[in-house]
Amino acid sequence: MTLYETIFTRRAVRQYDKTPLEDAELAEIQQVLDGAKRLPGQSGRFEIVNADKLKNASSPHAILAFSDDTDAARANIGYTLQTLDLYLQSKGYGSLWMGMAKPVTPQDDYRILLAFGKTDTPPRSSAGDFKRRAVLQISNEDNDVARAARLAPSAVNFQPWKLEFAPGKVTVRYVGRGLGKLVTLQFQKIDIGIILKHVELVLEHEDKTVTGITPKGSGKSFAVEVAYA
Ligand SMILES: Cc1cc2nc3c(=O)[nH]c(=O)nc-3n(C[C@H](O)[C@H](O)[C@H](O)COP(=O)(O)O)c2cc1C
Question: Which of 65, 86, 88, 108 has a CA between 20 and 30 Å from the CA of residue 96?
Answer without folding.
Answer: 108
